[in-house]
Amino acid sequence: VERAVCAAIAGKREQLVELLQTLVGFDTVTHTPGAPPRREAALQTFLADRLRRAGARVEVAVPAADLVAGHPMIPAGFDFAGRPQLVARFGRPGRGRTLLLNGHVDTVDPDPVAEWRHDPFAGDVADDAVHGRGACDMKGGVASMVMAAETLAGAGVELGGELIVNTVTEEESTGAGGLVSARTLTADAAIVPEPTRLGVGIACRGSLLATVTIPGRAGHAAIPDALEPFGTVNAIEKVELVLAAIRRLRARWRHRPGHPHLSPPDCVPTEIHGGEWIVSRPASCRLSCHIQFLPDQADERGWGSLVQREFTEAILETTAADAWLAAHPPTVEWTLAGVPPADVETGHPIVTTAVSALQAIGRPGTIAGFDNWHDGATLTVEGGIPAICLGPGDVGLAHTTREHVPIADLVDAAQAIAVTAMRFCGTAGG
Ligand SMILES: [Zn+2]
After folding, report:
1. What is the 143 CA–ligand 1 centroid distance (Å)?
2. Can you tell me the distance from the alpha carbon of 92 to that of 74, in angstroms, rounded to the nearest whole number?
3. Residue 44 to residue 52: CA distance in whole angstroms
């Protein structure tokens, strides 16, 4: 049966490419605060019709905002208006396990559009790959998981449990779509087909967004320091001390025991805004950082409060050596609570099953990490649904103007997902 399903998927290579081209053709650039929806609803309706024709029980609905309101990832005033979420169910909960296939259909902006060699919304085929925004992150994965579910249903495979196909918005912005899935769906495990080049991604880092405000004291740029005891203080020059503290923290994190499948924790300065006037010594400077942390650095709830404390202490410890900053310490603000890291045991049945399925289709089934956060972390940490990543394409191309996905990966991902579903959920009589 597995061979027949895989042969059927290989025979639908062209349909799989067309499905991905159609998905890329919907502009679903993610939600930015206050901006109207793009074509998320049209894409979800298109997939709903398709999955219904394949025999699924499908719901497409705009969730109530209070389903996610107050959660540490969700900004105040957030709502889903115009951005529905899709849940399609194949089979019935039975004696076998239930598997959730979850993918996001939003993308980042294609900017800078002039840098693209292919129209980002055309889904051009070149060099045995489909090109366009979202091709690998992650409409390619969505196409593969939809094709896997359709093919299982079309081949009359009766799974021992339910197979849920779930497509969400908001992954690239707030994570709210994945949070709705975590709060409303139940499953024994999930596959999120983010681009892993067909590896089994068992873990991801969490992240935090910090903004450090460094105070100075304003004064005329051409007049030598006069005010006592400190005179004027150039806040931009004082940022050097904060950068030194960050360098020291990064070095310490690089040398702490790490995770076998993830890069070390990191802190990357990403934005700086300082000064008020070109002829004045700056009264303040703000430096923002993107912090990535490992599962073993999380607090008892799975979030980053301990890392927040460590970061703040590292900044204050270094800057306390400076007389001005000791008397006027920098302040640290956090953008919401960031997002949590996640880790699934390598011995969990979803991991061992996915590895065996990949090996059955001729792929090595390598266990890997996924350095950046994705909705699977929310499913694992907030929903209690252990989620692995397993999908087509290379995450190094995500968010770039060269984004594409190899067609061979799309086919292999669909096969790997279908075989994993059969082995994980069990099949009637098998
Ligand atoms: Zn993604």
Report:
1. 13
2. 33
3. 12
